[in-house]
């Protein structure tokens, strides 16, 4: 099975900060990587697929990059609505990273 | 807007069985692969199982293989998860998810239900 490792597990930031989350796969998944956002008590929501393609209606302050085994999610200027937990997922066999909680510093 | 409504969760003793259902609407159910993803209390997301559009292909996480069975009834627009040999580590919210493909080829997850809670405890 392909393992996916996300870092950091928690990220403390302020409104307006640029934040970056990293996801590493145990073997190459090409560009088959997605990012999801989850808020407490809610279902996850797709943000990015194919490593860098923004889902419709997702703000352009979100961006994704990478291929093979290393990927990043960047939020260019953190907004109050962005405090949430973020998960990467390799969709060759659908395993998720452990999640990164973005909290207010 | 896609609508996925899970049901069937509840309290079950270790070793027991439970069947989850997911009623789908507002999209062509028979054209979408479907999946179950779970989340233990306070923990991350874990893929459980997937099924192709016609039910001919299925895929399971190693942790549930042999104990869980995924199935679908396209005439009823409903997805199922039959769970047996339940363990405390199976406890959590189970989400019904629509895949961005009809087949079990690499694809991401478009839409999620709100989930149903499964509690495994004596």
Give a short overview:
The complex is a heterodimer of chains A (105) and B (122). Chain A is mostly beta strands and 105 residues long.
Q: Overall 3D geometry of chain B?
A: globular
Strand content of chain A: over 45%
Oligomeric form: heterodimer
Instruction: Give the number of helices of chain A.
Output: 0
Q: How many β-strand runs of chain A? A: 11
For the record, give the distance between the C-alpha atoms at the N and C termini of chain A, rounded to a whole number.
36 Å
Look at the structure and give the mean pLDDT of chain A: 96
Structural class of chain A: mainly beta
As a percent range, the share of strand residues of chain B is over 45%
| Total DSSP helices of chain B | 0
**What would you call the structural class of chain B?**
mainly beta
Largest interface, with Cβ-Cβ < 8 Å?
A-B, 23 and 20 residues
Largest sheet features of chain B: 7 strands, mixed
Name the helicity range of chain B: under 10%
N- to C-terminal separation of chain B?
39 Å
Reconstruct the topology from this structure:
The complex is a heterodimer of chains A (105) and B (122).
Chain A: E1 4-7, E2 10-13, E3 19-25, E4 33-38, E5 45-49, E6 53-54, E7 62-67, E8 70-75, E9 85-90, E10 95-96, E11 100-104
Parallel strand pairs in A: 2-11
Antiparallel strand pairs in A: 1-3, 3-8, 4-5, 4-9, 5-6, 7-8, 9-10, 9-11
Chain B: E1 3-7, E2 10-12, E3 18-25, E4 34-39, E5 45-51, E6 58-60, E7 68-73, E8 78-83, E9 92-99, E10 109-112, E11 116-120
Parallel strand pairs in B: 2-11
Antiparallel strand pairs in B: 1-3, 3-8, 4-5, 4-9, 5-6, 7-8, 9-10, 9-11
């Amino acid at each position: 099975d392909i393992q996916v490792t996300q870092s950091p597990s928690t990220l403390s930031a302020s409104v307006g900060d640029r934040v970056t989350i990293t996801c590493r796969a145990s073997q190459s998944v090409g560009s088959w990587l997605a990012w999801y956002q989850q808020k407490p008590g809610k279902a996850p929501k797709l943000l990015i697929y194919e490593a860098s393609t923004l889902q419709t209606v997702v703000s352009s302050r979100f961006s994704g990059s990478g291929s093979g085994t290393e990927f990043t999610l960047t939020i260019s200027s953190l907004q109050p609505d962005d405090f949430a937990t973020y998960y990467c997922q390799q969709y060759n066999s659908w395993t998720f990273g452990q999640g990164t909680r973005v909290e207010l510093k | 807007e896609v609508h996925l409504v899970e049901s069937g969760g509840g309290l079950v003793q270790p070793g027991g069985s439970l069947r989850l259902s997911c009623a789908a609407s507002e999209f062509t159910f028979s054209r979408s692969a479907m999946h179950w993803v779970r989340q233990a209390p306070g923990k991350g997301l874990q893929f459980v199982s997937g099924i192709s559009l016609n039910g001919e292909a299925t895929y399971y996480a190693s942790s549930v293989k042999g104990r869980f069975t995924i199935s679908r009834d396209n005439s009823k627009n409903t997805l199922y998860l039959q769970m047996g040999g339940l363990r405390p580590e199976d406890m959590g919210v189970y989400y019904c998810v629509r895949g961005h493909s009809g087949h079990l080829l690499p694809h991401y997850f478009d839409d999620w239900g709100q989930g149903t809670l499964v509690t495994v405890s004596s």
